[in-house]
Amino acid sequence: MNRFMRAAIEEAIKGRDSGGIPIGSVLVKDNQILGAGHNQRVQQNDPMAHAEIDCLKQAGRVGNYKDMVLYSTLMPCYLCAGAVVQFGIKKVIVGENTTFKGAEDFMQQHGVEVVNLNNSECIELMRAFIDKYPKLWSEDIGE
Asked: Which of 22, 52, 88, 128 is 20 to 30 A removed from 67 (C-alpha atoms)?
């Protein structure tokens, strides 16, 4: 497995282990991680604290995002896909979209290359969480 997806999975595990939703993300440029984050909606009582948003905040101001790749353990939702499109990130590599379809079409329609790894570890992390906390998961995805 690619070291950047491994780093995103480690972020997801941090989120889970701190009482939150197991989704992680890293922002990469020139084979270097510029930012890493995980979903912290529960921990921060903040509906906007999605993994990709946290990752972008942790990276800080980085100038032009066109040469960067965003890794996420789960297909980004419309909120996070909007940030990808807004900042001009051209490539997103996701662990899976089995447990959540997300906004793949939206990103592709805006010129973003989306690569889905269908990673079994990412799928199992989410399935275990959804089985244990279905109400919290429904809240996270706006259902």
From this structure: 22
Q: Which is catalytic among the residues 52, 104, 139, 143? A: 52
Spatial distance between the Cα atoms of 105 and 37, rounded to a whole number of angstroms: 24
52 included as an active-site residue: yes
CA distances from 134 to 80, 96, 138 (A): 21, 18, 6
